[in-house]
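question for whoever is on the cluster today: can someone run the full assembly for these? two chains, 567 residues total. i dont have access anymore since they changed the login thing
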Amino acid sequence: MTFWTYRRRDNLVGYLFVAPALLGSLAFVLVPLGMVGWYSLNEWNVLGGTFEFIGGENYARLLADEKLRDSLVATAWFAAGLVVLNLSLALLLAVLLNQKLRGTTLFRTLFFSPVLVSLVAWTLVWQLMLQPEGSVNGLLGVFGVDGPNWLRGETTAMVSVVVVQVIKNVGLNMVLFLAALQGVPAPLYEAAKIDGAGAWRRFRSITIPLISPTILLTSIITIVGSLQVFAQIAVLTQGGPGTSTTVLIYYLYQQAFQFHHFGYGATISVLLFVIVAALTLLQWQMRRKWVLHES
Amino acid sequence: MSRKVALYGLLCLLCVPFVFPTWWMVTSSMKPISEIFSESLLPSEWTFSTYETVFKMQPFGQQYWNSLYIAVVVTAGTMAVAALAGYAFARIRFPGQNVLFVVVLTGLLIPSEVTIVPLFQLFQSLGMTNTHWPLIIVPIFGAPCVLAIFIMRQFFIALPPELEEAARMDGLGRAGIFYRIALPLSRPALGAVAIFTFLHSWNLYLEPIVYLSTPDMFTLPQALTQFVDIYGGPMWNVQLAAATMTAVPILVVFVVAQRQFIEGLAHTGVKG
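^ ran it for u. tokens below:
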């Protein structure tokens, strides 16, 4: 037998194939994550050129920081609003498009199209439409409603960023739901009909349980995605008015790259990491427990 | 019958916020500035001067090229890295495989925003700020690639092993099996990965504004926000012209290839 058996060669090929991804993960994910942890234990002012070990002081500051508390509240509202609105609208659109109707392909294309419009372009257009004299208020005016200055009121600004983001990306979840709906076996509905179940009952007792893996998948994608929303906030509201739309990642950007507090910025990064990791792991756990049948 | 009418009515109504912004972006970019807030669906007179202004105010052609080439390189690189790793994790057995897979998967828990501070520091010490390297290397090898690896792995796991065994009987080595058999079969998954990756790179905003500082290096999302007058007020119609130029080509590609697009994504979503 030669040294290079099929087995050995296979091992080598395996290592070579995963090497780029593995080295990349180490260099650009894990080592930087460790550095974020280290930086968070230091006072580091880039402009002043100071770098000094201060232990847990940044964390103490984090706990006392009222702006951070505001930011967490804004992040929670944004994520909750986004997930609820996005998933329910995506499901509604998918159900509508799943009817036997001519022209659903056209509507599917139209609902999906914002996904492909460049993000900042989409946001700029909405920024303009949400001006006091913009199209949104123009449309409301037709119905005799005097619209507010959307981006200047605390609540309306939050509503605006949520809605703009939902309309931009709901098409993705809609497509996933549509595929899931088409996978529900039709005989189940027939049988339920014969048993006298109404449309709502059929939806609740057949559709929802059978598409639950997709509901979970989309909710994971959407929640974790909501924590990464930056451009929309930066363009639409710059976190304002006040701190009403300063989501965590925007606050991180402000502290690190506008105020040059790298140490404190890293501390906020740690917090962001903990939240994302906790949410993801929680949802994986739920996936095991709750979701019906998984192939 | 009335149910059908109601359904169509509902669909048309729901369409408005999805379609109107794009329509309004395109038409308003050709309106004189005085009409920018008018409700009219079409300009009273068509003007293309805003499009000229776009190129006068910024090196817009260069910025377009920057965004485009970065997105293409990132997409090609991600497809290569993800296909190789996804295949190896799915089909090859080697010691330590599971541990290594978990190491790579941690990227799903660590969005690239979390590590922006040390990465900035890293690239600054390498003298790579205000270059496109960070926008290319990190997405290909870092956290954004992990989802692509996961999608590819899920695809290769579901591939029937008989095909590979037949090829092995014919004397094909592992690399040959991957390149000649598995890779061509993975086109649907690769297509979905390509679309996700391209859009992700094309829309990147935080990283460019952190790393890039001169207009000739800017990417499109960053450039779009730079059309301001000397008082810092936004020049709406010029912004809209630039926005139109960034959005329309992709929309056209989508409309032409929409079936492959949507079905490719849906397919992967169910599997992944």
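summary bc i know u wont read the tokens: Chain A has a mean pLDDT of 88. Chain A touches chain B through 90 residues (CB under 8 Å).
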